[in-house]
Design brief:
Elements lengths: L2 E6 L4 H12 L4 E4 L14 H11 L2 E6 L6 H6 L1 H21 L3 E7 L21 H14 L5 E5 L2 E2 L8 H11 L3 E5 L3 E2 L2 E2 H12 L5 E4 L6 E2 H11 L4 H4 L2 E5 L24
Parallel strand pairs: 1-2, 1-3, 3-4, 4-5, 5-10, 6-9, 7-12
Antiparallel strand pairs: 8-11
Helix pairs in contact: 1-7, 2-4, 4-5
Amino acid sequence: MKRAVFVTGGSGYLGHELHAALTGRGLDFEALGRAEGLDLARPFDIDGVVEARFAAAQAEPLLIHAAAWSRQDACEREPDNAFRANAEASGVLASLVAQFGGRMVYVSTDLVFDGEDAPYDETSTPLPISVYGRSKLLGERYVRSHARNLIVRIPLLFGPSFDGRRGASDSLLHAVSEGRELGLFTDEWRTPLDVRVAAARIVDLAITDVSGVRHLPGDARWSRYDFGLHCLQAAGVDIKASGARIMEARREDHGGARPRDCSLATVYGSTKL
């Protein structure tokens, strides 16, 4: 049967790169976002909008669901909204995809883990400590209730963005360009991945029949501090000349539910297929 590709979160950092990856492979797709009436904060109002789009396509839907309420501070302040957007809306979308005999790829996060037993592969048990992590894990559970679906957990993303203000590296470079003091954690570790690589791998997985859970770790484990310095050096930034102050910081000094080490690994022997 013919397949119709849909993508949520197209206005975001990863979403822009998913669009580019699909276009680069010559794959037609349709964006689903606020402009099309998809409001994740109102999960039970999206049925009609999405159902109409799926029906009009007259094809088996493949939905890459990258939209999320991802600002951790906002999730902590407004947990009800976080669960509506990240969990309930994902469940509604998964049900609609299944209704049309399709497949859903749900983009999740390394923050579904508590950070106390890294590295985490696909067999590791999630135990999130933040509202964001808990809401994404509940979204995973809704999505996994349909056997054909795939959950892709991604780490911290970096690389140039469309507006120069997104992702780990762009936000760092922007802060330095303004000469601001910046505290980076020496006691928090991740496995960062280039956003373009992440998008390409998600698309490659999406167009296969792979189901279950896949992790997409970057090539190395970095503390946030060391990774920040690495990004600045790679961009040719002279930190002293910039006037910026890059400070060592520790998690306990800043509060919030921050996992210590959410480094990802994979049981598949490759971060590709």
